[in-house]
Description:
The protein has helices at 18-29, 42-53, 69-82, 106-134, 146-149, 155-175, 195-199, 204-211, 222-233; strands at residues 9-12, 33-38, 59-63, 88-91, 137-144, 180-187, 244-247. The chain contains nine helices and seven strands.
Amino acid sequence: MDLQLTGTNVLITGAGQGLGRALGLGFAGEGANVAFHYNSSGEGAEKAAAEAAELGVRSIAVGGDLRDAGAVAAIVARTEDELGPIGVLVNNSAVTRKQRFLDSTPQDWAPQIDVTVTGTLQLTHAVAKQMAERESGSIVNLMGDSGRVGESGLLVTATARSTTVGLTRSLAKELARYRIRANAVSLALVRTDNFDAHAGTPEADTMKKILSAYPLRRFGHPDDITPMVLLLASPLSSWTTGQVVSVNGGYAMP
């Protein structure tokens, strides 16, 4: 199926590794030009951009701290200067930390809120302004299922992630007049190169217990997520906005 993404310019945050990188390559495979944003994973983003270029599209690695308004402006400016008007924004960047709430401090909370909430707001604001001027655009926000259903040991992460639901639905209602769509994809555990940082390194018995919460009895892989993100970004989803779609192996069912 042709997703009609050829020539679309896509900016993906947190794309130097893991799911963000896979998404970027997925878009490139559909003929889209891709900006792989990174903060600390510059080498990975550069390699991903080079791999995307081999598919015959234009691609760049663009660095910047989303907590910094000046860096955000530079990210958007460079992307539009080198690729052209941003047609799709994929908000993937987030900071997560597995920690009991009563053992945490405000200092532990700050990075999660600053990147996942403030950083996402800053970049979305900057990109949406450009999209509104052109009266066209699609925004896809990634979030963890902890933000929908709650999860012990991830209270602050869940709090930060839950804002994605409000952001997505509010964007959809406020920006529809500019023909901008906004949707979210909510995920359970996905096996990426930083999987252990999210799931820890549980013993075999613990892993079995975790997997028992998944009716499909396996964790996700980036290839499980990419098709849904591509479809929501595509013109084929032109009548879909304000939706939170779960791709989670059945871990939580709305």
